Amino acid sequence: MPLNCQQIKILIEAINAYDFPKKTYDFINKKEIKYTSMRQLEASIQENLTSGDIILVQDGLSNILYWGYYRTGYRDTRVNNFRSKVDQQQLIYATKIFQNLSETGIRIIKNLKLPEFSNLSFISKIRMFLDPKQYVILDRKLMKLAKTNTITLFHDVKEYPTSIPCSLENERIYQNWCNICKIASKKYFQNEELFAVDIERGIFHLIENNQSEIAANIIADI
After folding, report:
1. Which residue from 206, 20, 208, 172 is spatially nearest to 217, judged by alpha carbons?
2. What is the pLDDT of residues 91-124, one digit of tens each?
3. ∠ CA 201-83-111 to the nearest 5 degrees?
4. Domain boundaries in the chain?
5. With the C-alpha atoms ordered 90, 95, 96, 102, is the resulting torsion angle positive or negative?
6. What does the alpha-carbon distance between residue 190 and residue 62 come to, in Å, rounded to a whole number?
7. N or C: more exposed end of the chain, with fewer CB within 10 A?
8. Beta strands per DSSP E along the chain
């Protein structure tokens, strides 16, 4: 069944309440950058990733880690590890792929073997920043949906104790998750100028606020 008015209201409120830090880092001037919206942050990272310049691509990937690990105590360790271990050939390949990726491409990105980008959670972050209108993130926090009474596609995701592997089946599920979010953005929020990733962020916010069962019901009804 389609979403009812109450579910739509809950989802739009969750999207608007999403409050993950809107911050990246300027590696040239050595200072943090704060954005007024996720649209600005997305545009900045997307511009770097698709620039065709390996230095800017390195900064874009670094900022995916900087943003994604912002609330952890090991953010800088992850960023520094990536920047010290990634080599020029990996960045050259990544630069070419990021300019021409026309499919989900999860395992294509994985095959780059970029340091700190080995599992679905952070590889899906790369895919999202390349095209947030069409693609979303499959973060491990979303796996709380696999424990709800309402059955969703998350019940089929195969995961390790600390990560989600980039298997063929998980990539298929990830594409379905993107499709669900894209359908919802167009079907229920035509006049809101929302992207697929905004729907995912709303679901993420509900889970963070102990409303996983509500989130699962919304996904099932989309």
Report:
1. 206
2. 999 999 999 998 999 999 999 999 999 999 999 9
3. 70
4. 5-18+135-221, 23-130
5. positive
6. 33
7. N
8. 23-26, 31-34
